[in-house]
Specification:
The protein is mainly α. Helix content is 66%, strand content 0%. It binds zinc ion.
């Protein structure tokens, strides 16, 4: 799976009227959770040549530790009154957790789910960045998921009338 789809898929789930009406979500935290595993693991691969693009952040270990980290930071901010008062105390951490969980689900089965508690083989092949970009534009499956992502964004913008900065802000932060 590739970036646009990873962001669009969780957002589109919360556009389903039944879910949208009942569940309050912090979309900013949702989006960060939904792309963070790739941002960190791709950076580790492209810059430090560690793992194979699905590394330590594509694990259950990351899922729980990152959630705990966001939870603690959010609690500290909440008690120092720096956190957004519109959200309840669990809104940001839970939204983030939903984002990371959906990312891992979309990448299944080829992720090292139980790393570092189980051994996995990570084989960098060489020109990963080039291969990765090539795959987005030439593999029909990846290309179609990215096009789906793009169409989803257009739908989300129109459906929520996100034509002003204020509208985008309240879409991302409030609910
Ligand atoms: Zn990934």
């Amino acid at each position: 799976m590739f970036p646009l789809f990873h962001i669009a898929f969780p957002l589109i789930i919360f556009e389903i009227p039944y879910i949208k009406k009942r569940v309050k979500i912090n979309r900013c935290a949702l989006i960060i959770g939904a792309i963070l595993p790739d941002i960190i693991d791709k950076a580790l691969l492209f810059i430090f040549r560690l793992g194979d693009g699905r590394y330590i952040c594509h694990t259950l270990f990351f899922l729980f530790t990152s959630f705990l980290f966001v939870l603690v930071i959010n609690k500290l901010l909440f008690y120092t009154k720096l956190s957004n008062k519109i959200n309840n105390i669990y809104s940001i951490p839970i939204s983030f957790l939903i984002g990371t969980s959906i990312h891992l689900l979309l990448d299944l089965p080829s992720i090292p789910l139980f790393f570092p508690f189980m051994e996995y083989e990570f084989v960098p092949t060489g020109d990963e960045l080039l291969l990765w970009l090539k795959r987005i534009f030439t593999n029909p499956f990846y290309l179609s998921t990215e096009i789906f992502g793009l169409i989803s964004f257009i739908f989300i913008i129109l459906n929520n009338k996100l034509y002003t900065f204020k509208a985008v802000w309240s879409y991302l932060i409030v609910s």
